[in-house]
Amino acid sequence: MPKIRTHKSTAKRFHVSRGGSGKLMRTKQGKSHFRRKKPRRVRAEFDDLHVVDDQGIQRRVRRLAPYMKRNS
To answer: pTM of this prediction?
Structure first.
């Protein structure tokens, strides 16, 4: 049985959190362009990692990146 190919842009955009919880994490889009005119609070949100809560998106990411490290 051959290996499944990983969708590389999905693997770059998402990763699994460390520390045993195995949550799917993402950064916010629009991080690198037109940041000067945004408020400081919004610019700070770009640096944080956000948890993906939607089950449909989690399922889609797991299908596109099957070898992504996960603890469960």
So the answer is: 0.74
